[in-house]
Amino acid sequence: MLNYIETPSEFSDMCKTLSTGNAFFHCVYDAGIHPVYVNPIAIFIYHDATDSKFVVSFSHPDVISISKKCIPTLINTKCKKYIIHKKDSVHFMDVSDFIDISFDKYTKTLEQTSVNYPVCKDLHSIPIMTLKKSFDDTLKLLKKYIGNEDVNSAKFSTDMCNVFSTIEKNGMYVNKDIFNLGDTSLIKENGCVYGQYNYFTPTTRPSNRFAKINFAALNKKKNERDSLMSRFGTDGGLVMVDYESYHLRLFAEHIKFELPTSSLHEYLGKFYYDKDELTEEEYDMSKKITFNLIFGGISADVKEHIPFMKTVAEYVDTNWNNFQKNGYVETWLYKRKLSKNCYTDMNPYKLFNYLLQSIETEQNCKMGMKLNNHFDDLKSKLVLYHYDAFLMDMHKSEFKEVKKVAKFLENDGKYPLRMYVGSNYGNMNEIKV
């Protein structure tokens, strides 16, 4: 039975019920609107200990609405709370203590959990009992995971949610006159467009799309980056941080192999070409050789002559044997399990690269939190994340913060980086810090 919460006393009784046990919260909102601008229409709640279901309406006509001012009371109830698509909901209510159960399910099955509503222009026109069916269908898919979440995945999901919801909320300021990424209706009153990060991917490496714009793959040759500029006009600029040979350095740090702080492509290229100085062409080819070795397999002659590559090959073999023997391997920072039952289409080097992409995301999740915390009381903001790069919109009065940012991102010199500055994202020049 569905309990309609329409009066203060009914709301109070529901909150008493939610003082213990586990509860699954299902927010109804228009997924076609960017979450930054969403207003929730209703919340369905399932409480496991009493097998109760509730609906609270904020604007749906089938149920007497209550004020959104009641939301803090609702989310501060003492039950353990679960939600799907947590990163979307965080834009309109504080779900920081909620567990994203859809992410937990995804890490165990690689299956997405989507909510199926009837096709319509406005969810307000869908009867509340039809919306309840969508809630029931979603609950059926997730019920067995409630109360059985993986602690490490839940921690990672919470951190990812914090990082990427903040970046989304900051928005990317654009030059309306040269905006060529999509319809100009995407540009809000504040001059910003908004991306939407999705870390429900096999390696958790996030994509960033919204309204058919792929912000993670803007084509520089087509000038798709040029419209992204500083919101501070002539009083600011964009600053980008880009790591050098990031995957290999993360691996070296994991196994405690000491690498030079100078260019790793040059370091390895000297082995490949057996010479002390590389031409520009040889340097570029060194990158391709390393890429092919890491993704395709390291040959016996390379193992014999390059100690680092020998170490990589030995790790790949050991890691694969553990995967076969134990049925899983753990990611290096958050200790999340990549299960053999889930990751079925694997080979030794593919598994290794899944771990490399996972550690990239896990490490950058930590760095993203540091960046957001650093900018919390400043005008400058982190506005875009792209794998091994961060893009910041900085006010000129805070350019001095660049050195502080570089220091903690480099992590005591373990991860050398390059920094670029420009008036727009498509026209940036390297600077020395």
What's the layout of helices and strands?
Layout: E1 2-5, H1 8-17, E2 22-28, E3 42-47, E4 52-57, H2 71-75, E5 80-83, H3 86-89, E6 99-100, H4 101-109, H5 128-142, H6 151-170, E7 172-173, E8 192-193, E9 197-198, E10 207-210, E11 213-214, E12 236-243, H7 246-255, H8 264-273, H9 280-296, H10 300-305, H11 307-326, E13 328-330, E14 337-339, H12 348-374, E15 381-386, E16 389-395, H13 401-410, E17 417-424, E18 427-431
Parallel strand pairs: 1-4, 2-5, 5-6
Antiparallel strand pairs: 2-3, 3-4, 7-8, 9-10, 10-11, 12-16, 12-17, 13-14, 15-16, 17-18
Task: Give your account of this protein's structure.
By secondary structure, the protein is α+β, with helices and mostly antiparallel strands. The chain has helices spanning 8-17, 71-75, 86-89, 101-109, 128-142, 151-170, 246-255, 264-273, 280-296, 300-305, 307-326, 348-374, 401-410; strands spanning 2-5, 22-28, 42-47, 52-57, 80-83, 99-100, 172-173, 192-193, 197-198, 207-210, 213-214, 236-243, 328-330, 337-339, 381-386, 389-395, 417-424, 427-431. A 6-stranded mixed sheet has the order 1-4-3-2-5-6, with helices on both faces. Helix 6 packs across helix 12. The chain is globular. The protein starts with a strand and ends with a strand.
